[in-house]
Amino acid sequence: MSAAWPTEIRLSKDKRTLHVAFEDGASYALSAELLRVESPSAEVQGHSPTQKQTVPGKREVEIIRVEPVGHYAVKLAFDDMHDTGIYGWDYLRELGEHGEAKMQAYLDALAEKGLSRERGGRR
Predict the structure, then answer these.
(1) What is the pLDDT of residues 95-111, one digit of tens each?
(2) What are phi and psi of 17, to 5 degrees?
(3) Do 104 and 43 touch, CB atoms closer than 8 A?
(4) Confidence band (pLDDT; 50, 70, 90) for 24?
(5) Closest CA to 67 of 26, 11, 5
(6) Mean pLDDT for the stretch of residues 44-64
(7) Do 89 and 6 form a contact (C-beta atoms < 8 A)?
């Protein structure tokens, strides 16, 4: 069983933020962009750290569906039709705790590859 147990998972009205609260009182507002570009899916993460993909053009992405997966995760569907990531409670907690650093690493990777956060993904 996961050490991080959520007490609330709520999608904002604009569908760009997932609010997650945990039983220890920690709570996080996770942007749809961060959730999309850090999707735990094989499509994004690959099968090893060297295969991780930098996904451009997701600044305006929205979450269109949040579905429970058993008692351990949620599956998020995005308006770009990506819906293969299963976000376990521990992973949501990790994104909450380290989201700023992960976002900065993503921005650095975009810059290094000449990609953009804007739709179309190119500079």
Answers:
(1) 999 999 999 999 999 99
(2) -145, 130
(3) no
(4) very high
(5) 11
(6) 93
(7) yes
Q: What are the structure tokens assigned to 83, written together?
A: 């819906």
Are 82 and 13 in contact, with CB atoms under 8 Å apart?
no
d(CA 4, CA 93): 7
Residue 72's Cβ-count burial label (10 Å; 0-12, 13-18, 19+) is middle
Query: Is the entire prediction scored with pTM above 0.85?
Result: yes
Under 8 Å between Cβ of 12 and 64: no
Inter-residue contact 33 to 106 (CB < 8 Å) = no
Amino acid at residue number 93: R
**Which ranges in the chain belong to alpha helices (H)?**
32-37, 42-45, 89-113
Residue 122 reports pLDDT greater than 80: no
Nearest to 26 by CA among 74, 95, 87, 86: 95
Q: Which amino acid is at 21?
A: A
d(C-alpha 51, C-alpha 81), whole Å: 21
